[in-house]
Amino acid sequence: MRVSGDLGDLGRFAEPSLLILVSLSGEPKHGYAIMADVEELSGASLGPGTLYAALARLEARGVIEALPAEDRRRPYRITGLGERTLRAQLDGLDAFVRTGLMRLEHRT
Amino acid sequence: MNWLARAILTLYPSAWRERYGHEVGDLVSRRRLRALDLVDLLGGAFDARLHPQVVPSLLLAVGPPGPAPMPPMRPAQPSYGAITSLNPGVLSRRSFMRRMLGAGIGLLSIEFLGGTLAFLWPPPAAGIGVEHRVGTIAEILDASPDWARGTPYEFRPANAFLINVPAAKAMALGDVLEVMEPGAGEILALWRKCPHLGCMIPTACETRSRFQCYCHQSTYNIVGEKLELGPAPRGMDRFPVRIGDDGAVFVDTREVISGPPKGAQTFVDPYPPGEGCA
Predict the structure, then answer these.
(1) Among candidate residues B58, B73, B66, the one with its CA nearest the CA of residue A82
(2) Cα dihedral value A33, A71, A52, B52, nearest 10
């Protein structure tokens, strides 16, 4: 799936990034919780290398931020910019989904 | 699996490890890792090396991103990484140890690779494995005038004794015979490597004109045939000898002719066959 918008230029990290942002949209989570959550959300597993490569990119862009470490683990929180980015992404997907469903309805 | 994951973590750039190493270490210790996770972790190391700019610096990690002029929401994490990233000239103990380890492994790899390549190289152009030009007979006699009267000539490049056979036999019998122009068939090149265990055979003893190995007393007569004393299985091995167009003597160490078997003696000197040099 091609993800348009701000995350589109993340290449192969675009999809993991979207999953991570969705996972963080409820509450801050640390790496292990993100992994478990993403697995539950999408059914696909997210390897530790991919997870942290995506986290580093998202953090560098300012869409997520790290909170102080608690017991070696550092929770990540979505920023205001991240919330706007995620909303735009999901709106775009929503329109995409609607169009697809509509076309299926009106198939001749 | 866990130690393997930790080994892979050392492949990440140090800035990355300073920033994320603890978290990933914690993560891999909590999760049951599959082989695919390790591959993924390895892929992440390549990614982090290829795109070092995506790792946020430690300074960014403490302050909130964006233009908000708020004071830092949390204290900076004290870490050597922060100190060294602010002072490029300062080397932490940890990164020093890492560099030393890396240098050691690198050096070892180079040595291993060098040894492998050297093994593939063709044999040297000297020593055993090439044909040696000893020199003309006049040159040999110049270097060692006694060779005409039978004293073996030490030719070190081929580790061999050159024997002027008719003169040497006469010497061993107690006579004096001067042979100034031995033919190719009258010159032996005896390899000084004892056929028993490979010890180097010393120069012939003057008392009896025999060769006797220091290691186990294997004894040979002046033409390198094995006598009764000592464990060697045969006579001294030899190299083919030829005389070139210019009259020079050539010793070809590319080919080794096995020494004659025990008992197949062509020459008998006047001393007891069961004794050495004495």
Answers:
(1) B66
(2) 170
- How far apart are the C-alpha atoms of B118 and B266, rounded to whole Å? 44
- Residue in chain B closest to A76 (alpha carbons) equals B61
Q: Are residues B76 and B62 in contact, defined by beta-carbon separation less than 8 angstroms?
A: yes
φ, ψ of residue B69 in degrees (nearest 5): -85, 30
pTM of the model: 0.44
| Residue pLDDT tens, chain B, 278 long | 678 888 888 888 888 888 888 888 888 888 777 888 888 888 988 888 888 777 665 444 444 444 444 444 444 444 444 444 445 556 778 888 988 999 999 999 999 999 999 888 776 666 788 889 999 999 999 999 999 999 999 999 999 999 999 999 999 998 889 898 898 889 999 999 999 999 999 999 888 899 999 999 999 999 999 999 999 999 999 999 999 988 899 999 999 999 999 888 889 888 888 888 87
> Are the CB atoms for B100 and B94 separated by under 8 Å?
no
Q: What is the CA radius of gyration of chain B?
A: 37
Residues 6+ apart with CB under 8 A from A90: A22
Whole-Å CA distances, B170 to B163, B173, B175, B210:
12, 5, 5, 13
Q: Name the closest residue on chain B to residue A70, using Cα atoms.
A: B23
Pairing of strands B131-136, A76-78: unpaired
The answer to whether residues A21 and A64 touch, using CB atoms and an 8 Å cutoff, is yes
Q: Do B26 and A72 touch (CB under 8 A)?
A: yes
User: Which residue has tokens 């990440």?
Assistant: B12
Closest CB to B44 among A35, A49, A73? A49
- Please calculate the CA angle A34-A36-B19 and round it to the nearest 5 degrees: 40
Q: What are the phi and psi torsion angles at B258 (to 5°)?
A: -60, 145
ipTM of the complex: 0.78
Rounded CA gap, A93 and A22, in Å? 13
